[in-house]
Amino acid sequence: MLDVSLSKVTRPLLRDEAYDRIRQAIVDGTLPPGAPLRDGDLADQLGLSKAPVREALRRLADDGLVESKPQSYTRVSDVMSPDVLDAREIVRVLHEFAVRQASKKCRPADIAAMRAANDRFAAAIEARDIAAAVKADDELHNVPVRLAGNAAVAATLDRYTPLLRRLEHARFSSALAWNSVERHTRLIDALEAHDTETAVSVIATIWTDLLEDR
Asked: HTH gntR-type domain: which residues (predicted)?
């Protein structure tokens, strides 16, 4: 037997696991808008007690993915809720900031990483693998966010981007996804040329059209 000491899984970790699992189910549509969320049912499905599930639902309500009325209902929020519209504006502005900063710092390796991510994105769209498309899209946009070197920007994007995931799933499941491939290419070309204003314009269009192209 391996002679090591491992700590037990703690309640905060169970809470985080419940949060991650329920959030993913909301984002990918397993739990659709308006679906009732009963802590007992969710706890049974996840193999957890009610306490971490309740805490997860409170966090998801803070995120805008769940809406709740005391003694009445707890359910998945609408895709086009006011919280989503607000999140889109925050995410767009922060990506514009990141791209503006990255335009001054992009090296050939960074451009190559973005092009490779866009190739994976296009392949995932062709295969109708939406989870892979979302992952590749994240990898592409994370390059300028990383180059910007601003921890607050990265943390805020991590906080608000999940609100837009359902819109991304819908877009990447449709023919509009190919518009995203083309816009990614334009963004990468502009960054490679250190053309800051064009890069900022393209990234603004990418996030604005996440709602407009519906």
From this structure: 12-79
CB contact burial 92-102 (16+ within 10 A = b; e otherwise): bebbbbbbbbb
Q: Can you tell me which residue has the tokens 């335009």?
A: 103
Statement: residue 105 has pLDDT above 80: yes
Give the whole-angstrom CA distance, residue 82 versus residue 98: 25
Between CA 73 and CA 5 the distance in angstroms is 43
- Rounded CA separation 203/209 (Å): 10
pTM to 2 decimals?
0.77
* CA 144/CA 146 separation, integer angstroms: 5
For helices 82-102 and 151-160, angle between their N-to-C axes, nearest 10 degrees: 150
What was the pLDDT predicted at 80? 80
CA dihedral 182, 187, 193, 197 (to 10 degrees): 130
